[in-house]
């Protein structure tokens, strides 16, 4: 265990003006409070708080944070009280210790509904003083370093929580080194065989190729010396988990994976960063699509660096990061740079961000207790997302998570713009609202007076901000409509199990689902945030599991006006279980399309024709035709065997049409009658596994999609 004098020496290395007496007092108090307590390993318990404090000295943090680390378990695990800590060490330290205690008591990995509430509390605590989470992250890092002393089942629980919550959080806060170590320590527990296989392959690679890092580092230094640029060059092999994740994402084996080595060049000035980039690109071939300039477009946590990937020796790809010393400090410590010291002076790094800014961007969206689930969704989107940068027509930059759509862009500009959005132009070309935006595109939003958010936008939007704004607008503007639709959904759902949706039943369901009123329940049901099955299960769980009765075809679609008929669109052939929308059509009633049907682009400027529809949540009869396009081998008995397999899946073949006949294969359309989309997926999986089936896909009738609008 590090002694008090050694800990003080670590602090004074970066802050000679540190209050040694206060740190020594906290050390003695913590040691006394934890006396007699031991860890799972048998060591004195106080070794843990001291190790946490030592980790925080590596980030050069202030005295209050170091003292909090020494005391972070005293209020929870010893006889020490909040008042006693306040009296001895001041209100700032007491508040920080109390904040860490509250975070420790949150069961963040819970599968219950309270997970969203706990996440909200975590972020609220962080927004008050981010040093609370810095101590908690250091606490988790030391626990993961010493996790072997725990029981196996506890190890798995802690490792999963670390991988899901704490590692992404560390990365989002800019502490990439901590994210990588937390991920790798969790990987060691969750998949030890996978980790060992990566390490073994590394050893084999080094034996075959020698010290690649030393050679490439030398080559880079030589090129920079030739260009007259003063810079430091560092190289390293990437962590086992980072390599494993890339193998999974790219579906590649280790031998085919390229950039497993990373190099970092630290320069004196921003101008030198670009000179280094030029020298490296002149010497080695740049890999297209792998260049990112986070100096001109910094990340929200203050991260600045140039990233490029080049083909090095023997065609091996290597990733290079180029940054200044100040940029490097922020890249290593992230938001902790706000509290760090250098040579006894509070660091004034121009690239350090306001530590609570990105949390404030999240929390400002949520001002009511009913938004716990929305909050959880937005937090996860914010923590796990990569970013794309788009431009407004005036040239301003809008940052969005990868996969964002024009709807997300519109709400990022202003909620009012999002609400009034009717279309978008990307690089001057009109595109559907569900288009995925890419880096560098210029986006223009087309708005119209009287437009209001549509329920279908919830399927299109990606960002938490957009989804929350859409839900809120739908609740406010269309509340009465949703309550009316919810009543119909509830009536139909309870009738399906032989019960009535009385006021008392609905109030009981609302209480069980923790909603404040019957109307709130119906509004959420009508806006597709709840299903009729959720309501039935809340009141009659035993009946909700009984799906022996099938839903008649005439009652299969919910959301139509009394007496209003519907037909399934031939272009997309929607099936029960899919997200659908209705388009009113002269002479046809309502035509039902899948939410991703290409033909819907024709109706973007006619929002008055759109109707929010849902399939009934019960079991449907196998009467819904959908068409599959198959390519099969032209051998004796193949077609008969395919037809038999389809029959075994309880699907009836209603039509069969040959598109192409070749000596070695047939291409044909088979129309099958199915219950729902789940049966379709099951059928397609079975056909894909058949050796005589070369290809199978769901057929979309382009001719029907191009038919004139009715």
From TrEMBL:
CDD domains, A to Z: ACT_RelA-SpoT, HDc, NT_Rel-Spo_like, TGS_RSH
Record domain TGS: where: 382-447
Pfam families assigned: ACT_4 (PF13291), HD_4 (PF13328), RelA_AH_RIS (PF19296), RelA_SpoT (PF04607), TGS (PF02824)
GO molecular function, a single term: GTP diphosphokinase activity
All copies of domain ACT, residue ranges: 627-701
Domain HD: 45-144
Enzyme Commission number(s) of this protein: 2.7.6.5
Keywords linked to the UniProt accession: Transferase
Coiled-coil positions: none
Enzyme class: transferase
Domain of life of the native organism: Bacteria
Keyword Transferase attached: yes
Catalysis performed (reactions): GTP + ATP = guanosine 3'-diphosphate 5'-triphosphate + AMP
Family named by the database record: Belongs to the relA/spoT family.
Function: In eubacteria ppGpp (guanosine 3'-diphosphate 5'-diphosphate) is a mediator of the stringent response that coordinates a variety of cellular activities in response to changes in nutritional abundance.
PANTHER family on file: BIFUNCTIONAL (P)PPGPP SYNTHASE_HYDROLASE SPOT, GUANOSINE-3',5'-BIS DIPHOSPHATE 3'-PYROPHOSPHOHYDROLASE
Protein name (record): GTP pyrophosphokinase rsh
Organism of provenance: Lutimaribacter marinistellae
Lineage of source species: Bacteria, Pseudomonadati, Pseudomonadota, Alphaproteobacteria, Rhodobacterales
């Amino acid at each position: 265990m590090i002694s008090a004098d050694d800990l003080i020496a670590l602090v004074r290395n970066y802050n000679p003006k540190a209050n040694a007496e206060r740190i020594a007092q906290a050390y003695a108090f913590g040691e006394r409070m934890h006396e007699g307590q031991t860890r799972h390993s048998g060591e004195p318990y106080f070794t843990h708080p001291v190790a946490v404090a030592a980790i925080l000295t590596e980030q050069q943090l202030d005295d209050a944070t170091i003292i909090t680390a020494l005391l972070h378990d005293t209020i929870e695990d010893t006889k020490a009280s909040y008042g006693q800590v306040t009296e001895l060490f001041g209100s700032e330290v007491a508040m920080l210790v109390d904040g860490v205690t509250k975070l420790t008591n949150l069961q963040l990995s819970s599968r219950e509904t309270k997970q969203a509430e706990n996440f909200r509390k975590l972020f609220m605590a962080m927004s008050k003083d981010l040093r609370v989470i810095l101590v908690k992250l250091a606490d988790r890092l030391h626990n993961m370093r010493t996790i072997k002393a725990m029981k196996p089942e506890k190890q798995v629980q802690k490792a999963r929580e670390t991988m899901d919550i704490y590692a992404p959080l560390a990365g989002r806060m800019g502490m990439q080194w901590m994210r990588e170590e937390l991920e790798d320590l969790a990987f060691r527990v969750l998949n030890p065989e996978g980790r060992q296989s990566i390490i073994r392959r590394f050893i084999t690679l080094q034996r075959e190729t020698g010290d690649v890092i030393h050679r490439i580092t030398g080559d880079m230094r030589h090129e920079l010396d030739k260009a007259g640029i003063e810079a430091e060059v560092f190289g390293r092999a990437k962590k086992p988990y980072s390599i494993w994740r890339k193998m999974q994402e790219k579906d590649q084996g280790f031998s085919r994976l390229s950039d497993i080595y990373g190099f970092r060049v630290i320069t004196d000035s921003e101008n030198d960063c670009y000179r280094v980039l030029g020298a490296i690109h002149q010497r080695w071939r740049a890999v297209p699509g792998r260049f990112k300039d986070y100096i001109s477009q910094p990340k929200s946590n203050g991260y600045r660096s140039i990233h490029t990937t080049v083909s090095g020796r023997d065609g091996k790809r290597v990733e290079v990061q180029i940054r200044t010393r100040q940029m490097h400090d922020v890249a290593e410590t992230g938001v902790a740079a706000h509290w760090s010291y250098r040579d006894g002076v509070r660091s004034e790094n121009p690239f350090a961000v306001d530590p609570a800014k990105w949390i404030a961007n999240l929390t400002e969206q949520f001002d009511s207790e009913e938004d716990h689930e929305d909050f959880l969704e937005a937090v996860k989107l914010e923590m796990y997302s990569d970013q794309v940068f788009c431009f407004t027509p005036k040239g301003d930059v809008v940052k969005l998570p990868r996969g964002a759509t024009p709807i997300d862009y519109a709400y990022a500009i202003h909620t009012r713009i999002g609400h009034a959005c009717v279309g978008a132009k990307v690089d001057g070309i009109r595109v559907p609202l569900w288009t995925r935006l890419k880096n560098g595109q210029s986006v223009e939003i087309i708005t119209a007076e009287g437009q209001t958010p549509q329920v279908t936008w919830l399927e299109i939007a990606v960002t938490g901000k957009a989804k929350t704004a859409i839900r809120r607008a739908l609740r406010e503007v269309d509340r009465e409509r949703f309550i009316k639709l919810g009543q119909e959904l509830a009536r139909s759902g309870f009738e399906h199990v032989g019960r009535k949706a009385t006021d008392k039943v609905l109030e009981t369901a609302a209480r069980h689902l923790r909603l404040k009123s019957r109307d709130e329940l119906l509004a959420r049901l009508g806006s597709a945030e709840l299903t009729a099955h959720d309501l039935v299960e809340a009141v009659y769980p035993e009946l909700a599991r009984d799906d022996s009765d099938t839903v008649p075809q005439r009652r299969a679609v919910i959301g139509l006006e009394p007496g209003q008929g519907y037909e399934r669109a031939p272009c997309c052939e929607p099936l029960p279980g899919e997200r659908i929308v209705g388009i009113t059509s002269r002479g046809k009633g309502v035509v039902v399309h899948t939410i991703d049907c290409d033909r819907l682009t024709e109706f973007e400027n006619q929002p008055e024709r759109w109707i929010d529809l849902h399939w009934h949540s019960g079991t449907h009869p196998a009467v819904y035709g959908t068409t599959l396009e198959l390519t099969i081998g032209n051998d004796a008995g193949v077609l008969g065997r395919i037809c038999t397999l389809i029959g075994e899946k309880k699907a009836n073949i209603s039509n069969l049409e040959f598109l192409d006949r070749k000596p070695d294969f047939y291409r044909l359309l088979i129309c099958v009658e199915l219950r729902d989309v789940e049966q379709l997926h099951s059928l397609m999986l079975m056909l894909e596994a058949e050796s005589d089936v070369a290809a199978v896909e769901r057929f979309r009738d382009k001719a029907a999609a191009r038919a004139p609008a009715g």
